[in-house]
Amino acid sequence: xxxxxxxxxxxxxxxxxxxxxxxxxxxxxxxxxxxxxxxxxxxxxxxxxxxxxxxxxxxxxxxxxxxxxxxxxxxxxxxxxxxxxxxxxxxxxxxxxxxxxxxxxxxxxxxxxxxxxxxxxxxxxxxxxxxxxxxxxxxxxxxxxxxxxxxxxxxxxxxxxxxxxxxxxxxxxxxxxxxxxxxxxxxxxxxxxxxxxxxxxxxxxxxxxxxxxxxxxxxxxxxxxxxxxxxxxxxxxxxxxxxxxxxxxxxxxxxxxxxxxxxxxxxxxxxxxxxxxxxxxxxxxxxxxxxxxxxxxxxxxxxxxxxxxxxxxxxxxxxxxxxxxxxxxxxxxxxxxxxxxxxxxxxxxxxxxxxxxxxxxxxxxxxxxxxxxxxxxxxxxxxxxxxxxxxxxxxxxxxxxxxxxxxxxxxxxxxxxxxxxxxxxxxxxxxxxxxxxxxxxxxxxxxxxxxxxxxxxxxxxxxxxxxxxxxxxxxxxxxxxxxxxxxxxxxxxxxxxxxxx
Amino acid sequence: xxxxxxxxxxxxxxxxxxxxxxxxxxxxxxxxxxxxxxxxxxxxxxxxxxxxxxxxxxxxxxxxxxxxxxxxxxxxxxxxxxxxxxxxxxxxxxxxxxxxxxxxxxxxxxxxxxxxxxxxxxxxxxxxxxxxxxxxxxxxxxxxxxxxxxxxxxxxxxxxxxxxxxxxxxxxxxxxxxxxxxxxxxxxxxxxxxxxxxxxxxxxxxxxxxxxxxxxxxxxxxxxxxxxxxxxxxxxxxxxxxxxxxxxxxxxxxxxxxxxxxxxxxxxxxxxxxxxxxxxxxxxxxxxxxxxxxxxxxxxxxxxxxxxxxxxxxxxxxxxxxxxxxxxxxxxxxxxxxxxxxxxxxxxxxxxxxxxxxxxxx
Amino acid sequence: xxxxxxxxxxxxxxxxxxxxxxxxxxxxxxxxxxxxxxxxxxxxxxxxxxxxxxxxxxxxxxxxxxxxxxxxxxxxxxxxxxxxxxxxxxxxxxxxxxxxxxxxxxxxxxxxxxxxxxxxxxxxxxxxxxxxxxxxxxxxxxxxxxxxxxxxxxxxxxxxxxxxxxxxxxxxxxxxxxxxxxxxxxxxxxxxxxxxxxxxxxxxxxxxxxxxxxxxxxxxxxxxxxxxxxxxxxxxxxxxxxxxxxxxxxxxxxxxxxxxxxxxxxxxxxxxxxxxxxxxxxxxxxxxxxxxxxxxxxxxxxxxxxxxxxxxxxxxxxxxxxxxxxxxxxxxxxxxxxxxxxxxxxxxxxxxxxxxxxxxxxxxxxxxxxxxxxxxxxxxxxxxxxxxxxxxxxxxxxxxxxxxxxxxxx
Lengths: 501, 362, 410
Known about the structure:
By secondary structure, chain B is mostly helical. Chain B has helices spanning 2-30, 35-42, 48-72, 81-98, 105-132, 136-158, 195-210, 212-222, 224-229, 234-251, 254-261, 274-284, 289-311, 318-361, and strands at residues 160-162, 165-167.
């Protein structure tokens, strides 16, 4: 297999109202693992889609082995030897491994025995251990990722682009993936590895390119670069470190969970014996690798999910059986993880979004009737107080940038003097400025006596904002830390459950 | 902002209607007819008799459209309006004909019976959706056929013979409301219960734009996940909204029943198809109150003028083609305009913010 | 042995067992109730004629939905097919009638494809519009083109040649004789053989061939894999270089053509004349048969035969006692389902089914005849019932009915 040499020069891409990429340059040398790092929203995904022909660039050229190329569709990119493993797997659950792999590449070995043999062969060579005739829906996350990689190899790709491949994996699976990648490189492939996890990047990459605000801002040599240098390149300045000042924790309990158990439809435990208290003026941070029960915890507190046993109390009141509306009426604010799906009605103007979640409370609603004037006035207040950059409150939520949407949600959830705030990844995917503003608002509210349950994957955020850290692992709270004392590596160990990790 | 949204609301249906007329003209021209005659006849001034028919038909059509729209706004597709109003008509007619309640009160109670019957029938589809995850579209298609067959059976079993067909007992004369005699010289009245359309229309507008219930309903339609997170019980809403829709559907045929037919017995003494046309009207009017009234009048107008086409040697079924194309064209136009507008707004917001930023830094 | 072969064998084995079980049950019920006509060649022939148009529509629906487009416009496309068949058969002979029907159906499909694929309109809305247009167009076209013809009228047409029938000599006679013997199982099977070998329409044979061809193309060719991938995960297909729009278009056009052929069956085989609105909702029943059949050709076939049977026997003279006998059959099947459900751990559903079985049995025992109206309702009630009970077991293509826009992958 001959390796590929790919260079992107001066790539630019504009979307309506947004410059996603400008003057992006990147050189992937043959037989190397090239890491592309940057914050959320730095333009990595757009660049990747351009390299794979999903979107066409507005400016710039792509040069493969010295020749300029244009990719109108992924087919062109595939033909040039480029393969892509998306972060959100592109697999059809109801088709077999074989069908998923040969789809679009039927000309190579047909869709029958020859193809099956070829797949078994590649799978064997890299120790993937996949059965071509399994339905994809029966496979776990790591196996699905292997199917994706196999898909790319089957097409004879010489450059494999991996978009945040470790986001969904547990540490052991990450190790296995890295071993696979090294074998691929030894076999003559180039790899473009996209990530924002600096440890991993330093562990696997041969070259590093950093992106910030839609452009490439520099390269680094993993042999000499430190995490701190890379982080500074990514953020552009000193890391904003959230510093909670003196403690405002009181003795009044706002939220108490006692032995809460949640099971899914199949009867498996998603949360086991969760006991947790949040006091007035306290921020309790929940740390954990995603998918260890954080969503279930949020949903059960918010009344969106029932617990099988155990109880939930807000102040002294038993709210175990309450539904979401009842929970909200008792003064619980909720910043959901996925703002587009759960936080906003994207096609509604901001003032109508002000009503969402406050349908039974003033000033939006009075005696079952919508109070337009009240809702509009309060939406205007949020826009001003929380510095939401918008032409006005009649603008639809969809038209705003992610950071401004999030600021509006935070503002809304903090109105009406809540007692408790459930904040799930409150600064995910927002720009640095908005992040600092949101942290400041949470701190201010905490000083006023608000209790906060903070779920985040951002360790800096967790350590900086929390008064207490709880670690969630496989649906259990397994460790407790004082954020003032804890180090990131302690936390990381507890989150993965491996003392030896 | 305001002006562009008004333009956005008027232009798509206008384009759709013109496009549909053009397409229909083309069909007529290709099949050897005169497109000029078609356009001239459709746009001629209707006579008084046709005018009354148009008013009465648009009342029933808008009732049916409101029934559909209640569900559309929540993202439910109540294709079962057809069956629900059949059931409502059948139940209402049996009750009214029985004369259990005397005089004008009979009218009121009959309306309640028809609404309950329609709501109950709609609840079957709703319960299957909430309880068993069955698509309301599929179950409603089945229920539509069952409704018509059952109604036919019940009338044959418990009704009276009338010529070759069966009908329910006539409403007692004391329970027959007087209509509005708009044109003294023309035959027929504007039916008293055609006013139901106005009442339901106003109620619909108020419910949707002014009440919490309406907000919850619309938010669920726009984003079920966001509505859930905001505290809406979506399952319960499906049941309530389907029942409400069915209740309105139950009223659809009541104007004709009390106004002129006085007994129920398909196919002669019943007007089938209002449910499907109502869906089309709701789509045309984009589920907005005024839009629905305009759409209903337009469809009733087309149907009313179609008889005159016969005299020009053009088959009147041609207006069905027009109606169908209007629906298709209008949803296409709304989809295109909607996408354009979202894009334009995003660009505008970004431009404005860029300008602000430069202003600050300058 | 690979997992796939194992699965396929088990599946086939189970299917044969079910088929055998149904035959034995039917035979027992026939003998117990004394309704000898239940499996008589004439009855089964009527059932076959009833089933074929539903099957064609259902397979049409399958094509579209496997590519992710819900085609509720089958009814309208089928209507267009009835007119196309009549028009072209009248002027150019029965074979051109078939072509004309498929073409008219395809036009209806094209309308649906433009709206749903190119413009991303809601599939149900577009389908409803196609049905309105189809009904209007057929009414208009009939009046415009048939009114002045000999044998024609404003809403109907007759006097065209229909398709030839085929009788397999030898087999047909033998089977007919056996069927008359009223023997347990043997006569029932013979009845089916006789129905399949005696005066069977060429279009019925063609239908069977098309079903087999559909199964082959969709599951054994690269084209079929690509088409199905558009219904399962079009974004993934797009990233692999599949032109999703093109496959969706092709699927919906084929879907319309199948529905059109279903219309042709009604005007050229089930009867020898055309009338406006001849489909009587069979497009919808085809859709129901497809859902009943869990989006698989064999399932669609089973569903169509069942609906075709209830549809076919309503046309037989004096079908009351026969329908009455069917009540017992339904009660027995319900008990079987109830047992299956209880063993799967769904006790509530099982109990409800058992109760309905008891009610059906009571109905059977307390009456001698069933009103014709109820027979007409049967396909709809059964579909509703089956979907309600087995909703969780049904598996539609994952992206069926969802809007897809190019360039939004990743």
